[in-house]
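Thread: flavin-adenine dinucleotide complex, take 2
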Amino acid sequence: MNIVVPIKQVPETSNVKMDPETGTMIRDGVESIINPLDLYAIEIAIQLKEKFGGKVTAVTMGPPAANKALKEAIAMGCDEGVLVSDRKFAGADTWSTAYVLVKAIERIGEVDLVVAGERATDGDTGQVGPNIAAAMNLPLATYVSKVESLTENSMTVERLTEEGYEKLQLPLPALLTVVKEISYPRLPTLRGKQRAKITDIPTYTVADLDVEENNLGLKGSPTRVVKIETPKVTRGGKILKVVDDQSLNEAVDNLIAFMKMKEII
Ligand SMILES: Cc1cc2nc3c(=O)[nH]c(=O)nc-3n(C[C@H](O)[C@H](O)[C@H](O)COP(=O)(O)OP(=O)(O)OC[C@H]3O[C@@H](n4cnc5c(N)ncnc54)[C@H](O)[C@@H]3O)c2cc1C
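Output below.
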């Protein structure tokens, strides 16, 4: 069973700052980590490999520093890592990111299963996994919380829905996006860390992939961040000053009228 896990390196903070000029994220000076939700994808991929045999390859598209995320994935138990990195990929939106990742997955070789995280904590769209499935024409199950069974050519999974669970049977190869309920990510072992240190991580650049240059990066992205602003939360309240008994009675009357208008009482 050949499993590929696309992982994203994200800033180690939920306080993501954006460049208002370019509409892109400011990543300088912020420590990067593996997208926390991708750790669950890595974990279930390793568990499936341990049970059914095969190989797990982590792949990330990002700057050269994203190598660190791949080393961590190998330290957890992934067999290989692939870095997809080229200045021409910079500024990609979800469509262009998925386009390049698909080309990288095709280059990795025959794949039985792709396991992605539910969403990245920075971009937060949850689109890349389903985009990859669509581009590769793979059956897709999102929000997977349990892998119930797996055979050579099919698998049964449970996925979370708003009402509860849904059971799906998928022919392989397929793509899953997984949620936290699927398992608990293991910590890297000392042996894993040593293996990660000596494992070579190939870098795929534009020259290594069968990509159309006009589908890459900011220029090749069909979506644009036109404007970014922080929504202002205003309560639209009214301050009533109480200075004597009369203004107290007025304030109470106003409050009761307001609550009636809002159907609170
Ligand atoms: C309308 C729009 C415009 C944007 N414009 C810009 C822009 O102009 N410039 C810019 O820099 N960014 C832009 N972005 C952000 C950029 O698209 C995303 O950060 C990136 O494409 C990944 O999407 P995401 O973070 O939403 O990941 P999600 O779709 O939330 O991630 C889901 C899963 O996909 C996988 N995954 C995601 N990204 C990667 C990756 N790079 N490598 C490997 N696996 C991955 C992981 O398994 C992850 O858990 C834009 C986003 C949107 C929605």
